[in-house]
């Protein structure tokens, strides 16, 4: 490879990073430029969800939730709150990421740039919002449960990176797939409803374990807990709850599981994307 | 001389869908995603664009010019072959260069600029220049979806040239801008040329291409016909455009041929063919034709020229309020009546055209196939082309 080629590679990388930054900032800015009411609205949505779920599942159903390991917290709305916000990020950023190609069809057909910039910057801007929500959550936890949580807070950084990679991989696959299949966005919103219930946003693993034991008492051996925990979203939410609700370090097997899921998602995402995005312009 | 763009055996085909399922539901129901044919838009095209040249791409609609430009801009990937470009490439492809309709002009300039490789600082520095060149200052903070197509192009083009690309690709955009903007662009291209940058343009403005480009390539149906010095290529292309054949009476004809003129002549009041008319006297021109099928609402036209080719007069049916419902299959004729022929004595030719109702399609055009002579008559002339109903009179003094 010649000097010239190496230099043009470097130039291209610079342009790509610059573009990614601009697109991300554009989206973040667009969200913050929204009207006051719009801004409040976007806060109301998770708050309303937390309130409704707390009343239904906490108050009416009295779902069992183990008290926070180190924090001793027994505040159901906070426990639900972590789940709602983490799940909101996973499903919301995939939904936004998968639309990123179709929404920018005008750009794709008129200018060249590495196509992956679109889903990446979409997920980046969702992550930025998620980061802010995590900070708010952290502040609330510190107020209610004591400052101990701040000791574990730095763990959120690697966890956020893993979540980002996991979500990005899925978004990349779906962003090109949704160009071939236009109803994919619709299907995703249905699927993500189902996935939410399967991910223990609203009830804890205790409930699943109780059922499993009840079945076992009847002589039926069903590995319900294992199945429940095979769901990567459940593992992610669990890890965030470990840190923010229990004030504890997630166990190493959680870390390993998350690492494997994230790496797999990202690798598959990139492979599929590179293969399909090449001629995507002709399909738009 | 090195090549700014090297097109090496490039082929590109598209899928042309006959049955396409764009949803999972339909795909599952019909059991397949799509049925398609391949359409070859570029077939083994090779040429080099010399560095610093202004290079024109010519060809009829659908000949693959835009496809080739998109391959150069890396928006499309060739199926086989390769395209190598040197330096920074900026493209202005068709209307709009990838603007986001909801964003304001300002935001789009920044977004587009960064896509084309400008840094934030570079953009800050050049922003005013970009807006000034585009001339859309007043609308710069409005969403671009409210722009007129000309404004859209002006802003996009302005960004593209301020990127200071080494290779600038321009597709048909000049046609949308107004005169003033076109001139501005021409100046800018000239400046690019002085600075040794390469410009590749697609345009249907043949004359513009001739004066403006130094090299050109001509594509037809995805096949490279010729490449070389612009004026030669433009001539070749222009000649090929009208498949001209020899017609009766030494005339030349072109057109699709559903109607063909058989004879263009001057006739007297009895309908007999004559070869002479008198200046100022009535004259009737008969356009005889043969229709190979029924043609609805044809528009006939006549043109008179001097023998050395000066165009004197034309009239067609639309302007004369004469558009017959149809001509049937078979032969026929149309007469053109002039009450007082105001031509000076001399030799003239008759040409005729038959077009569709909207005058967008040419059935037949038979040029210079009829001949007649004008002799001195009631209208006198001492020189010039015309003989008018004039006289000298009325001397006044004191
Ligand atoms: N995405 C696509 N899918 C299918 N066919 C395509 C696609 N893009 C272009 N084509 C076909 O390829 C051929 C060449 O198109 P192209 O746009 O390159 O023509 P052009 O020379 O630019 O014509 P014009 O002078 O009208 O701009 C056309 O027949 C067109 O229908
Ligand atoms: Mg074109």
From TrEMBL, chain B:
Q: Which PANTHER family did the record assign?
A: TEICHOIC ACIDS EXPORT ATP-BINDING PROTEIN TAGH (PTHR46743)
Cell membrane keyword on record: no
- GO molecular function per UniProt: ABC-type transporter activity; ATP binding; ATP hydrolysis activity
Q: Name one Pfam family in it.
A: ABC_tran
Question: Which keywords annotate this record?
Answer: ATP-binding, Nucleotide-binding, Transport
Kindly give the InterPro entries that the UniProt entry links to this protein.
Answer: AAA+_ATPase, ABC_transporter-like_ATP-bd, ABC_transpr_TagH-like, Bact_Polysacc_Export_ATP-bd, P-loop_NTPase, Wzt_C
Task: Return the protein name.
Answer: ABC transporter ATP-binding protein
Q: To which protein family does this belong?
A: Belongs to the ABC transporter superfamily.
Q: Which domain of life is it from?
A: Bacteria
Organism source for this protein? Agrococcus sediminis
Q: Which residue range or ranges hold the ABC transporter domain?
A: 19-246
Q: Which SMART domains match?
A: AAA
Q: Which residues form the signal peptide?
A: none
* Entry's transmembrane regions: none
CC per GO annotation: membrane
């Amino acid at each position: 490879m010649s000097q010239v080629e190496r230099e043009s590679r470097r130039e291209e990388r610079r342009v790509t990073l610059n573009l990614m930054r601009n697109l991300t900032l554009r989206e973040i800015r667009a969200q913050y430029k929204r009207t006051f009411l719009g801004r409040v609205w976007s806060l109301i949505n998770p708050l309303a969800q937390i309130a409704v779920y707390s009343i239904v599942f906490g108050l009416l159903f009295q779902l069992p939730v183990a008290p926070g390991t180190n924090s001793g917290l027994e505040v159901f709305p906070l426990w639900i709150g972590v789940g709602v916000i983490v799940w909101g990020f996973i499903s919301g950023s995939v939904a936004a990421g998968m639309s990123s190609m179709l929404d920018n069809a005008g750009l794709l057909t008129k200018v060249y740039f590495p196509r992956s910039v679109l889903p990446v910057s979409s997920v980046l801007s969702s992550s930025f919002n998620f980061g802010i929500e995590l900070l708010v959550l952290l502040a609330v936890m510190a107020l209610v449960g004591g400052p101990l949580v701040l000791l574990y807070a730095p763990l959120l950084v690697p966890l956020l990176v893993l979540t980002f990679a996991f979500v990005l991989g899925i978004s990349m696959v779906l962003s090109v797939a949704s160009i071939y299949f236009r109803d994919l966005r619709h299907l995703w919103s249905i699927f993500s409803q189902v996935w939410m219930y399967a991910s223990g946003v609203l009830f804890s693993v205790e409930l699943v374990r109780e059922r499993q034991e009840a079945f076992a008492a009847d002589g039926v051996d069903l590995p319900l807990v294992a199945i429940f925990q095979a769901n990567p979203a459940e593992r992610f939410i669990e890890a965030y709850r470990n840190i923010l609700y229990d004030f504890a370090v997630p166990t190493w097997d959680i870390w390993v599981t998350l690492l494997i899921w994230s790496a797999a998602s990202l690798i598959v995402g990139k492979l599929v994307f590179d293969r399909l995005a090449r001629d995507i312009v002709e399909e738009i | 001389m090195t090549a700014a763009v090297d097109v090496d055996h490039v082929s590109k085909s598209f899928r042309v869908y006959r049955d396409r399922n764009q949803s999972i539901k339909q795909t599952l129901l019909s059991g397949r995603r799509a049925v398609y044919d391949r359409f070859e838009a570029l077939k083994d095209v090779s040429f080099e664009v010399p560095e610093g040249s202004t290079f024109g791409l010519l060809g009829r609609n659908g000949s693959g010019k835009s496809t080739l430009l998109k391959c150069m801009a890396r928006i499309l990937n060739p199926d086989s072959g390769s395209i190598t470009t040197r330096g920074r490439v900026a493209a202005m492809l068709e209307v709009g260069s990838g603007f986001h309709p909801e964003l304001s002009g300002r935001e789009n300039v920044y977004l587009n600029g960064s896509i084309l490789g400008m840094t934030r600082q570079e953009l800050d520095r050049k922003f005013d220049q970009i807006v000034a060149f585009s001339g859309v200052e007043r609308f710069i903070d409005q969403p671009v979806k409210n722009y007129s197509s000309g404004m859209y192009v002006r802003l996009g083009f302005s960004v593209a040239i301020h990127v200071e690309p080494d290779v600038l690709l321009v597709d048909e955009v000049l046609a949308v801008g107004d005169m003033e903007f076109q001139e501005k662009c021409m100046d800018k291209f000239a400046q690019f040329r002085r600075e040794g940058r390469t410009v590749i343009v697609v345009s249907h403005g043949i004359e513009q291409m001739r004066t403006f480009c130094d090299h050109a390539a001509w594509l037809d149906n995805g096949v490279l016909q010729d490449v070389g010095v612009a004026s030669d290529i433009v001539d070749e292309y222009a000649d090929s455009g009208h498949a001209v054949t020899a017609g009766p009476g030494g005339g030349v004809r072109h057109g699709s041929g559903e109607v063909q003129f058989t004879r263009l002549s001057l006739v007297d009041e009895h309908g007999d063919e004559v070869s002479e008319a008198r200046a100022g006297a009535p004259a009737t021109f008969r356009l005889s034709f043969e229709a190979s099928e029924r043609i609805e609402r044809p528009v006939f036209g006549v043109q008179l020229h001097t023998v050395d080719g000066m165009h004197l007069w034309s009239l067609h049916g639309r302007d004369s309020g004469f558009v017959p419902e149809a001509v049937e299959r078979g032969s026929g004729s149309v007469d053109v009546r002039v009450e007082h022929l105001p031509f000076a004595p001399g030799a003239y030719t008759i040409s005729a055209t038959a077009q569709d109702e909207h005058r967008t399609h040419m059935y037949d055009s038979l040029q210079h196939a009829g001949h007649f002579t004008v002799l001195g008559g009631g209208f006198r002339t001492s020189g010039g082309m015309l003989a008018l109903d004039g006289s000298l009179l009325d001397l006044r003094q004191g």
